[in-house]
Amino acid sequence: MKRLWKYFLLTCMSVLFISACTSTKDSTPETKTEKVRIAEVTRSLFYAPQYVAISKGFFKEEGLDIELTTTPGGDKTMTTLLSNGADIALVGSETSIYVSLQDANNPILNFAQLTQNDGTFLVSREKINNFTWDQLKGKDYLGQRKGGMPQMVGEYVLKNRNIDPQKDVNLIQNVDFANIASAFASGTGDFVQLFEPTASIFEKEGKGYIVAAFGKESGALPYTTFMAKESFLKDKKDIAEKFTRALYKGQQWVDAHSPEEIADVVVDYFKETPKDIMINVIKRYKEQHAYATNPLLEKEEWNRLIDVMKTAGQLKEDISYEKLVHTEFANNVIKK
């Protein structure tokens, strides 16, 4: 009887021990996932490292759940950020300068660079075998939004080629950013400045022909960066650094892999774009070093941006690199 009682007690203790261990394991809180809302200025293969970082799970590895929204045009993207419709904006650095000129109490800071030169291409309605920039003179030129990065870089390049965009060409700027491609396809303009993959699709369909790359002409500058309110970067410092680390992984992955491999990873973001077009576009961007290989925005690039804006007549005084560029997170993830 004593032996049976001892056996019963041991069995009960074992059950209690196992239950306690199971209870402790089950009650362990799961890793918290933080949602981060991104507003991107357009959907383009120009932003391949971002889509790679999402698709490869680099943001998830950092505990971040990315909610990506496309808000066509720099003005709409910045409005979305300022009105708290997004935590982070992917847009041209010039937008942060425009906000700072309004004496914003909560300035918009550039904290991670994605692209390091212009991603647009000059497309001609007619096929030109030996294009020279002076062939633009006297032609209808369908440009981008006044004060936006594509238009300012376009004017910067034209002036460097001794072409006055206000006098030597018939500059058309009354078309909304989202409708520029369709306007050209409908017959507006002899030349147009387009992003990829639209430029290559037009070429394949015979609607236009790529004759020059603005990125090769302009030099390195912070064409597209991730930016956020100063308050967000202070209050959500941990999230901002995790975000930058995930982006860096995406940039390194793109730098190390072929256009074919990259296209396979980002295909879900461009379901209507033929695979051969995607590969060709990515190859073109890689060859002109459009993709930044790390998130650090360099001072020399910032100074070129200031020069571009001054040349376009959109900026009268310098805006210091230290005022609007936050390098802490980029430096940290690169070092680690």
Automatic annotation (TrEMBL):
Keyword Signal found: yes
SsuA/THI5-like domain mapped to chain residues: 48-257
Cross-referenced Gene3D superfamilies: Periplasmic binding protein-like II (3.40.190.10)
Entries under InterPro entries matching the protein: SsuA/THI5 (IPR015168)
Major subcellular location class: periplasm
Tree of life domain: Bacteria
Signal sequence region: 1-24
Pfam families membership: NMT1
Keywords of this entry: Signal
Localization terms from the record: Periplasm
Any one Gene Ontology cellular component term annotated for this protein: periplasmic space
Family: Belongs to the bacterial solute-binding protein SsuA/TauA family.
PANTHER family: ALIPHATIC SULFONATES-BINDING PROTEIN-RELATED (PTHR30024), TAURINE-BINDING PERIPLASMIC PROTEIN (PTHR30024:SF47)
The protein's name: ABC transporter substrate-binding protein
Organism of provenance: Priestia taiwanensis
Origin organism lineage: Bacteria, Bacillati, Bacillota, Bacilli, Bacillales
